[in-house]
Design goal:
The protein has a single domain, classed as Jelly Rolls, CATH 2.60.120. A hairpin with a 4-residue loop joins β5 and β6. It is mainly beta. It is globular and about 35 Å long.
Length: 118
Amino acid sequence: MPGDVSATPDRPCVKRALGDVAGLEQMAANVYEVAPGEQIPLAYHYHDDQEEVFYVLSGTLHVETPDETFEVGADEVFVVEPDSPQRAYNPDAATEPARAFVVGAPSVDDVHPYDPDG
């Protein structure tokens, strides 16, 4: 159960690294609990090779892209392809936390910051 996995320290939201506990090597699997005003730990960014899938368990997760900001509600999925900048967050005005199960594959450290003004 995700609640049985300790939260990863020093994050701007609660991250439970399920993939680490399960010993996954080819994909990352995390549950994030994002309070109003918080974002999922990485700032606006993109990956060279990693694909990501956000499955929202509760609340509404906002995903900002260069084209628009998407509101992803409970039981909805948002998919991010490689080289696609995105930032997932729960806005300040939200009335409840957002909780999401996020899978990324392959499990590589290929993240790059993205500057929408640059």
